[in-house]
Amino acid sequence: MLKSLFGLLANPRPEPTDSDDVELALAALLVRLARSDGLYEESEQAHIDRLLIARNGIGPFEATALRRRAEALEDEAADTVRFTRALKDGIAHDDRMSVIEALWEVAMADGARGAEEDSLIRLAANLLGINDRDSALARQRVIARLDD
């Protein structure tokens, strides 16, 4: 599967993605966000795992394995566009807001939201066709959930 995603990411006109490729691309984007501030903390890794469990209905071991595959993919990927392209091709526009919410959750997982994280979320939202206003609303929903 990793080989097929590398092929998808290298192909400028990718074939339709399957759900495994989409979830791996999402996991890699979450890892990229968590690493964007130069720190990749255990709290961020655990939060990514929890998001993967909730989104995919998988267990903790499978989530950790998916995150580790995503870490390797993120290490090799030159840019963020490749992940967002796979997500944009594989997720309906109305469902992309959940991707933005997941990004905001990871950005706030370590208790400190950095400029690098804000920039990456803004870029990802733009590439996914989500405007700044809707991204801000997604951030507010995440903050409200975290405060509860």
Please provide the ordered H/E string of secondary-structure elements. HHHHHHHH
What's the main sheet like? none
Number of helices: 8
Number of domains: 1
Shape: globular
| Distance from first to last alpha carbon | 38 Å
Q: In percent, how helical is the residue content? A: over 70%
Structural class: mainly alpha
CATH superfamily: TerB-like
The fold-level CATH name is TerB-like
> What is the number of strand segments?
0
Q: Give the averaged pLDDT, no decimals.
A: 87
**Under the CATH scheme, which architecture would be assigned?**
Orthogonal Bundle
Q: What is the CATH domain class?
A: Mainly Alpha
Report the radius of gyration as a whole number of Å: 14 Å
Strand content: under 5%
Low-confidence stretches: 1-17
InterPro entries: DjlA_N, TerB-like
Protein name: TerB family tellurite resistance protein
